[in-house]
Amino acid sequence: MTRSASETPYVLVLFYSRHGATQEMAQQLAAGIESVAGIAARLRTVPPVSPTTEAVDPEIPAEGAVYATLDDLRHCHGLALGSPTRFGNMASPLKYFLDTTSELWMNGALTDKPATAFTSTASLHGGQEATLLTMLVPLLHHGMVYAGVPYRETQLLTTRSGGTPYGTSHLAGAKAERELDVDETALARAQGARLGCLALAMRSLHEEA
Ligand SMILES: Cc1cc2nc3c(=O)[nH]c(=O)nc-3n(C[C@H](O)[C@H](O)[C@H](O)COP(=O)(O)O)c2cc1C
């Protein structure tokens, strides 16, 4: 089930960020999405998880994006999924949220919608591509159509930091000392704009008439 055609379509930028680097990327992707006329970006995050489960986080976080709901995901027209790299994979809070999406999977709610992924690492060869490739797997299970970053974005050939054809990435540094640089910013924006265009173009595949 999707929203009716009259409501403004949006791309969900769903991310987890502990120290802010992935959040910075999410904001650049959102700016790219919003550069496309006719589509909005909706920024949402997920709460942290801990080995002890007695404490429950407040429903609204103290700062930043609000927590995602299944309805945010159900009604999106595209998805940008962002996570810090953790041992070459997405962070567990994001995986935990995705593990609650069985109902959407059973109903095919995300099928034929475009998706992309982005990540941030401490080190240059610390697993950016591995993380992006592992992040796309659950999206394929949901029937989403994965879109990376095409080589027409020439920064892919010249970047000395983040940026991959599998999705964008950011080298934050061992002490999180690096801001997004010019190439990383341009690639994240281009990735967002491309996803926005694809979301509009693919709308008729899954939206009710
Ligand atoms: C448990 C854990 C595992 C991590 N694994 C990696 C890794 O495999 N490669 C890497 O370069 N950085 C690794 N990092 C560092 C984070 O990916 C990096 O600091 C990232 O920029 C944090 O993003 P954030 O500011 O959005 O939280 C790890 C950090 C933690 C806490």
Automatic annotation (TrEMBL):
One of its GO terms (molecular function) is electron transfer activity. The keyword Protein biosynthesis does not apply. InterPro entries: Flavodoxin/NO_synth, Flavodoxin_CS, Flavoprotein-like_sf, Flavoprotein_WrbA-like, FMN_Rdtase-like_dom. Its cofactor is FMN. Keywords: Flavoprotein, FMN. GO terms for cellular component: membrane. Residues 11-195 form the Flavodoxin-like domain. Belongs to the WrbA family. This is Flavodoxin/nitric oxide synthase.
